[in-house]
Amino acid sequence: LRRADGSYIINGNWAINWSGEYDAAGARFTYRRQDASGGEYIAAKGPLLEPVDIMVIYQQPNPGIKYEYMLPLGESPFGSLGSMGGPSSPVPRPAGPGVYGGGNSGIKPPIASSLYPPSDDIAPKDGPIYDGLDSRSSVLASDAQVRSGGGYQSLMPSGDDSKPLAPRSRGRKRKFIWKLSGFSECSKSCGGGVQTATVHCVREHNHTPVPERRCTPHDRPSPQTVRCNIKPCPAEWVAGDWGPCSVSCGSGGMQTRDVWCQQEISSTLRMRVAEGACLSPPSSLPRSRPCPNPPLSCHARRWVTGEWGPCSTQCGKGLRSRAVRCVGPDGAEAAPGAAQCPMDEKPLQEDVCDMGPCTPNTWFFTEWSQ
After folding, report:
1. Which Gene3D superfamilies does UniProt cross-reference here (predicted)?
2. What is the extent of the structural domain holding 132?
3. In whole angstroms, what is the distance from residue 155 CA to residue 131 CA?
4. How far is it, in rounded angstroms, from Cα 203 to Cα 179?
5. Distance of CA 46 to CAs 28, 52, 97, 126, 128, Å?
6. Quick one: pLDDT at residue 114?
7. Most-buried pick from 94, 220, 295, 349 (CB within 10 A)?
8. Are residues 209 and 245 in the same domain?
9. Are 145 and 213 in the same domain?
10. Distance between CA atoms of residues 263 and 231, nearest Å
């Protein structure tokens, strides 16, 4: 059970909670773990003050999920719908954060069809959650009342620092207003994306667009976002990094890598799933390949170096040296008269070392004589 902000209420981050009661989203959830008498059980009397996600993780064939919920008959959580009354029908004010739409369009809630008779005005459509805003006539205002014929509707805050516009004075006619013109494209095609409400400055009497400098910047609503495309993404094949070449020299070496089936459940959860959930691995993700950079020939010679020795002095600048050898593929030093390593590639055998400045008036001594 997860909140809309991504924080978990029950069984999150691969941690299993015990059976009991958990307070969240303005309600108390009763949770019962799976036992010999039945499966897992989550229930809450509500009402919920914020959206929650119920996520199911299974490691075997799903035996089935049963869910049910109730809504008051006298109101719709999605605002005023075209098939539910005339233009003057009031729009319920939400009890907590959320985005509500109005006007003559909306989303048909997934409840019994007897409560909502079929109508083209409320046909389900793809888009953001609670996307019931009519981009042709919805104007940002502070009241939650649908005006007759205008389809005006409030855009309620979706964050603590968001606030609706201040109410307009009845005795003062404003020339320019901020108007909702729709939503941006969803940031993701699946797995939970976001859409941002777009507002423009328009003339109040005919809603024609004007430069934004005509509207009062202080009255511009805070950025509003809604979730969209929350369905999990289809499972797909994912490949790991290529391993080392199977041979150290010569040809015929191969590299391998791991390829697994993965599904993106949400923006914060990606799971490795059974390979049967993915289609056959595409040819663009092979599990093995010939080494792209063939190793050196097994007959080639190369330079190898030892560790640097100590500096020749205890302070100031001195010299340090190391062993440099020409060896064959087997690591043995090249025999006299055999093909030698390229001299222009030979590493340094001696180098300057700096032990720092010497302290004045310091005694130095040599090794003991025989």
Report:
1. 2.60.120.830, Thrombospondin type-1 (TSP1) repeat
2. 78-231
3. 11
4. 9
5. 7, 12, 15, 27, 23
6. 33
7. 94
8. no
9. yes
10. 11
> Tokens standing for 218?
């202080």
Residue matched to tokens 């006619």:
173
Residue in the structure block whose two tokens are 């979730």:
227
Count of domains for the chain: 4
Tokens 């009354």 sit at which residue? Answer: 85
What span, in angstroms and rounded, lies between the C-alpha atoms of 69 and 50?
15
Residue 181 has pLDDT above 50, yes or no: yes
Buried b (16+ CB within 10 A) or exposed e, 27-44: bebebeeeeeeeeeebeb
356 token code pair: 């720092």
Q: Which residues pair with 261 in a beta bridge?
A: 237
Please say whether the beta carbons of 172 and 165 come within 8 A: no
Q: pLDDT tens digit string along 251-269?
A: 788 999 998 888 888 888 8
- Which H, E and C letters describe 185-242, residue by residue? CCCCCCCCEEEEEEEEEEECCCCCECCHHHCCHHHCCCCCEEEECCCCCCCEEEECCC
Q: Identify whether 23 is part of a domain.
A: yes
| Single-letter amino acid, residue 144 | A
Report residue 285 as tokens: 């993700």
Report phi then psi at 218, rounded to 5: -65, -30
Phi and psi angles of residue 78, each rounded to the nearest 5 degrees, phi first: -105, 20
Residue 225 is assigned to a structural domain of this protein: yes
**Do the Cβ atoms of 2 and 55 come closer than 8 Å?**
yes
Give the CA distances from residue 58 to residues 65, 68, 119, 236, in Å, rounded to whole numbers and listed in that order.
Answer: 12, 21, 38, 18
* pLDDT tens for each residue of 9-41: 998 877 778 889 999 988 999 998 876 666 788
Could you tell me if 88 and 200 lie in one domain? yes
The residues, any chain, with a CB within 8 Å of residue 9's CB and separated by 6 or more, are: 1, 2, 3, 22, 24, 25, 29, 52
Residue 194 burial (CB < 10 Å; 0-12/13-18/19+)?
Answer: middle
pTM over the 0.85 mark: no
DSSP reduced 3-state for 31: strand
Whether the CB-CB separation of 204 and 175 falls below 8 Å is answered with: yes
Q: Are 99 and 71 in contact (CB under 8 A)?
A: no
User: What six digits make up the tokens of 190?
Assistant: 């699946």
